[in-house]
């Protein structure tokens, strides 16, 4: 008999469940759980915002133009936000996404404008560069075992130096970038809704399927929640972490290509403004739908919520500082309302990377 | 020393403690005299640690307990400054910060010397620390991070931290199994230090479960077993044999006795020349239907065996193993994970369950490949059927397979871990401390579950430092001492005294 019961043993077995779990019961109870504030609080906040701005700016806000503006204007932000979801599910931080996005933006422009290549080749080369970034990130984080938070900051700096090398820190512009067929990648529209919105939907669909409906997704979450336990169950945690870094580099790289096509220039700082908003959306998203898990639709919801708010503020006031104030407030409020019960950054959790030797683990901490 | 009092410096009486349904301590009494090394000895789970934790204020005692320091009563289960002055602890975990130096660590428990401006007077801090640490003469660099120090150096720093500002007072230094990780050569140095503390007039309460240490060091010994004080004797009046009998309770009847298996069965696992951690060449055969126990004292390395067999040991491993029914080829021990044998790990929260996952998700994690449709989609319905089926079979008490596993009791979590291992129908199941932190009723259910699996032909390896597990469960027990299998006990010969003698080497 061990005289010290574990903490788990002292937990009352009847502790309330989180809403993320399937609760057997009537259809009505399940519907109530699905529509609860805890599950989709962001939807209600979003509705409040819509009503608020409709009252505040009745002439400009409640229009189809605003709807299109919110959708088109946030598609790239949504892609970048989605790119951090798979790594975060496995508790890996990829802070280099912003730089990867800038890299593909300037490379696409560079290959088309300076090297005179066709759009297909240029995009392929830029995406190859993004793939390389992902592989390098994977090597540093997984093989060399550097904490992902710091490692991807470092690789981000390396990418920035590459960008400066190509561009001398000035945007690459050219008529070819604005011409068909390249520009249509971002500017083709159906009823005013442009193609990037479709990309966002497809990416969300793919990540949702991966995380919710495949074994790989389940293993990603297992890796994120308790890598030691997952490893003992045969989950190849290192390989999964590596792959999430490749995925985030590819998706953020693709966002860079779309960005270039939509603005018609390759900007060396294209990605920078998207970094914080991507993490804000992913973290707010993790409080939605699958509370405690980074997930695709929650993230999209958060992007739209933040996008609507910022667009509304832009229409209602001219205060430049309002947008960031709004983003920060939403992030804090969302995290507080859900009890902050989502994954902490790995660097803040003092957890051993490998299992300590059981013969000594009891004595030396 | 101040006034010469003849009474005990620490007295505890009528101390009881319950954890839920478990009676950890019953009416325990203890007296430590000044200038004495008083050993507290008992098998694993006897209640030693609980007693220490109550003294240290981590747990509350049940009402009715009396505790006095030098005749002055103090409250058990609360941290008081006055008591802290007299009663100092060196816990098993030492409570040091490895990244910091000895100086920093001492300052953490006793404060920094500062100037009038508030900045730290490092020179003085280092001098103070050196003075405390040098007394033990181990050449500790007080500026280097402790992570770089040897184990005995760290232990010394922990003792020095406990003794700060305490010189010459009447008090009690409590050492909780300080030698558990020390190499044999360094134990003697530690003993000298402990004697020095005693000779300065303090009482020392020395917790151990190694009898050799008691005879080398202690003046008196209190034996506790099953949460009760069995005896307090001067060590001079005892022989190792006598002490072992007190510890083991020679006359204790054994409760749940599994019938020894009859007739020869084929081996399902063969392990040869296994080296890992403290293990130095361990080998054995495991027959189908056999429930093989592996045990030893803390530090013997017995708990590594299941990890090594499953390829889950973090350190260096060598040796080879084979599943004769599956293949005639031997597998190198470092590639053992390729055999895919399931492990019920010792640290349930850290390695066993994924707390943020539901019961079902925990159960099916290693089985996901089987639940995939051709398109790669997970078959949710089949997954929940599988989970529900196993929840029923092993009798997990839960609100449903969708409930978060962290909401379950430790015993029920353990059942989920077991079910997950069994669902793959492995030829061998390896368990490490399977009943740690599990209440008695669930413990019996777990025994029953393991027994049923073995009866169906599975080979079971149980590493446990809890003799109750071994007595109730095993058909054969290997006792590991000094990294080797020192003794093999099987069938009716598995008794508590036999196990204790074999572990301690007092046969």
TrEMBL record, chain A:
Main location: membrane
Subcellular location: Cell membrane
Membrane-spanning ranges: 39-58, 70-90, 97-117, 123-144, 149-168, 188-211, 240-259, 271-289, 296-315, 321-344
Membrane topology note: Multi-pass membrane protein
The organism's place on the tree of life at top rank: Bacteria
Pfam families reported for this sequence: BPD_transp_2
GO CC, alphabetical: plasma membrane
Swiss-Prot/TrEMBL keywords: Cell membrane, Membrane, Transmembrane, Transmembrane helix
Alphabetized InterPro entries for the sequence: ABC_transp_permease (IPR001851)
MF term (GO), any: transmembrane transporter activity
UniProt KW Hydrolase keyword: no
Name under which the protein is recorded: Putative Ribose transport system permease protein RbsC
Source species of the chain: Streptomyces afghaniensis 772
């Amino acid at each position: 008999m061990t005289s010290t019961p574990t903490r788990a043993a002292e937990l009352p077995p009847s502790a309330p469940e989180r809403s993320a779990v399937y609760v057997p019961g009537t259809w009505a109870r399940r519907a109530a759980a699905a529509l609860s504030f805890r599950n989709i609080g962001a939807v209600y906040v979003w509705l409040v915002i819509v009503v608020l701005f409709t009252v505040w700016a009745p002439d400009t806000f409640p229009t189809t133009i605003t709807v299109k503006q919110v959708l088109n204007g946030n598609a790239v932000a949504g892609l970048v936000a989605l790119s951090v979801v798979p790594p975060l599910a496995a508790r890996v931080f990829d802070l280099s996404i912003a730089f990867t996005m800038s890299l593909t933006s300037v490379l696409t422009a560079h290959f088309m404008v300076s090297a005179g290549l066709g759009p297909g080749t240029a995009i392929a080369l830029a995406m190859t560069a993004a793939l390389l970034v992902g592989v390098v990130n994977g090597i540093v984080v997984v093989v060399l075992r550097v904490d992902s938070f710091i490692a991807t900051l470092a690789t981000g700096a390396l990418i920035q130096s590459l960008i400066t090398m190509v561009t001398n820190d000035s945007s690459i512009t050219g008529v070819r970038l604005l011409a068909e067929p390249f520009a249509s990648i971002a500017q083709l529209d159906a009823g005013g809704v442009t193609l990037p919105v479709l990309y966002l939907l497809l990416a969300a669909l793919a990540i949702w399927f991966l995380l919710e409906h495949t074994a790989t997704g389940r293993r990603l979450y297992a890796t994120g929640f308790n890598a030691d336990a997952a490893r003992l169950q045969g989950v190849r945690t290192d390989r999964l972490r590596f792959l999430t870094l490749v995925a985030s580099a590819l998706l953020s790289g693709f966002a860079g290509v779309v960005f270039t096509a939509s603005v018609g220039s390759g900007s060396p700082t294209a990605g920078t403004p998207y970094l914080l908003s991507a993490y804000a959306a992913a973290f707010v998203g993790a409080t939605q739908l699958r509370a405690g898990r980074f997930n695709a639709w929650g993230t999209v919801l958060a992007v739209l919520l933040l996008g609507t708010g910022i667009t509304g503020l832009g229409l209602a006031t001219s205060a430049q500082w309002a947008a960031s104030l709004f983003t920060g407030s939403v992030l804090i409020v969302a995290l507080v309302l859900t009890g902050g019960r989502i994954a902490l950054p790995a660097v803040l959790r003092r957890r051993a990377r490998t299992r300590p030797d059981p013969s000594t683990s009891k004595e030396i901490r | 020393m101040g006034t010469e009092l003849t009474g005990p410096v620490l007295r505890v009486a009528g101390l009881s403690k319950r954890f839920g349904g478990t009676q950890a301590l019953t009416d325990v009494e203890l007296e430590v005299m000044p200038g004495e090394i008083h050993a507290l000895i008992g098998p694993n789970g006897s209640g030693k640690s609980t007693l220490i934790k109550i003294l240290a204020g981590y747990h509350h005692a049940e009402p009715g307990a009396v505790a006095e320091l030098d005749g002055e009563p103090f409250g058990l289960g609360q941290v008081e400054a006055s008591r802290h002055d007299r009663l100092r602890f060196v816990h098993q975990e030492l409570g040091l910060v490895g990244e910091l130096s000895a100086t920093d660590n001492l300052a953490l428990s006793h404060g920094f010397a500062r100037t009038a401006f508030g900045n730290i007077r490092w020179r003085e801090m280092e001098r103070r620390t050196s003075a405390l640490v040098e007394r033990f003469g181990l050449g500790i660099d007080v500026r280097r991070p402790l992570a770089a120090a040897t184990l005995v150096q760290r232990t010394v720093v922990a003792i020095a931290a406990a003794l700060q500002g305490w010189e010459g007072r009447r008090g009690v230094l409590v050492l909780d199994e300080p030698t558990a990780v020390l190499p044999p050569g360094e134990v003697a140095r530690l003993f000298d230090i402990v004697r020095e503390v005693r000779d300065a007039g303090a009482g020392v309460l020395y917790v151990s479960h190694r009898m050799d240490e008691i005879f080398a060091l202690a003046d008196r010994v209190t034996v506790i077993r099953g949460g009760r004080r069995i005896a307090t004797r001067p060590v001079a009046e005892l022989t190792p044999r006598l002490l072992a009998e007190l510890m083991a309770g020679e006359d204790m009847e054994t409760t749940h006795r599994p019938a020894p298996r009859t007739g020869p069965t084929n081996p399902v696992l063969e392990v040869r020349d296994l080296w890992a951690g403290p293990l130095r060449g361990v080998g054995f055969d495991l027959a189908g239907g056999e429930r093989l126990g592996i045990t030893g004292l803390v530090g013997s390395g017995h708990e590594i065996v299941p990890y090594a067999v499953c390829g889950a040991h973090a350190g260096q491993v060598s040796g080879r193993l084979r599943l004769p029914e599956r293949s005639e080829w031997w597998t190198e021990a470092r590639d053992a994970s390729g055999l895919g044998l399931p492990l019920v790990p010792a640290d349930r929260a850290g390695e066993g369950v994924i707390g943020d996952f539901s019961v079902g998700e925990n159960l099916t994690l290693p089985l996901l490949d089987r639940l995939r449709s051709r398109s790669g989609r997970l078959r949710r319905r089949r997954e929940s059927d599988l989970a529900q089926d196993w929840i029923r079979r092993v009798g997990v008490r839960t609100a449903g397979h969708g409930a978060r596993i962290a909401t379950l009791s430790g015993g029920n979590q353990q059942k989920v871990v077991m079910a997950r291992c069994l669902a793959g129908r492995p030829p061998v199941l390896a368990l490490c401390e399977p009943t740690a932190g599990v209440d008695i009723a669930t413990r019996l259910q777990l025994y029953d579950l393991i027994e049923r699996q073995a009866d169906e032909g599975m080979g079971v390896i149980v590493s446990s430092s809890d003799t109750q597990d071994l007595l109730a469960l095993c058909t054969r027990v290997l006792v590991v001492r000094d990294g080797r299998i020192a003794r093999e006990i099987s069938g009716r010969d598995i008794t508590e005294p036999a196990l204790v003698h074999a572990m301690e080497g007092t046969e």
